[in-house]
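hey m, so remember when u said the tokens were messed up on ur end? i reran from scratch. heres the input so u can diff it against urs
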Amino acid sequence: HINLDFTSATSCFPTTMLSKAFLVLAIAGVAEAFCPSHLAGLTSFKASRPSGMNLRMSAETPAPGISRRGLLSGATAAAVLSSGVMGANAADPKDLVRLENGLSYQVKKANTGPLAALAPGAVEGDFVIVDYIAYLRDGTIFDNTVKRGKPVAFQMGKKQTIPGLESGLLGMKAGEQRRLFVPARLGYGERGVCFEDASKGCLVPANTDLVYDVTLVSVGPSPI
């Protein structure tokens, strides 16, 4: 079994909210993506305390698109990814936007459409649909919604994903792309994402900084 502890994360949309959220998601053409990718496919969970969750899933029946083989890529691939992910940060420090909470990001593609100035930026309470590729700082990919072809959807401000991802989305407009540099305390913190069998290691080691390449597919206000 895999023991996934998501500090500050809570469950997916409550059932009572799905009917109201459906319209927002259906318009974007991804009505099936109600849950953050981290929670998709998990068969059971229980809250361990208000600030976290204790999630378990069978290693024999992993979440869709998430497997130990897929998440733990080879050393060669990691080295290539590392040069791309970390190289941009080192080469263009002037392009980094640094937030007070410790998160920093680069705008990789801005919304430059004719109505860009009028387009709303994501704020707390909005429903967002997001594509991302998530890396460890050595370049290893541990989650990839783009490869699965299934962007994730959640409501901002409801702790339905890690704090760093949510913080990095604030102000983003539909079509915008950012690279987020997430400190460990805004990611999976001291717990990481580890197998219950310690000999199998961790998908995300404890106290690991993360990098997310994020595309905001759609953003809309809460229908409630």
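this time it looks ok to me. Residues 2-220 form a domain with the Chitinase A; domain 3 fold (CATH 3.10.50.40). if urs says something different then somethings off w ur setup not the seq
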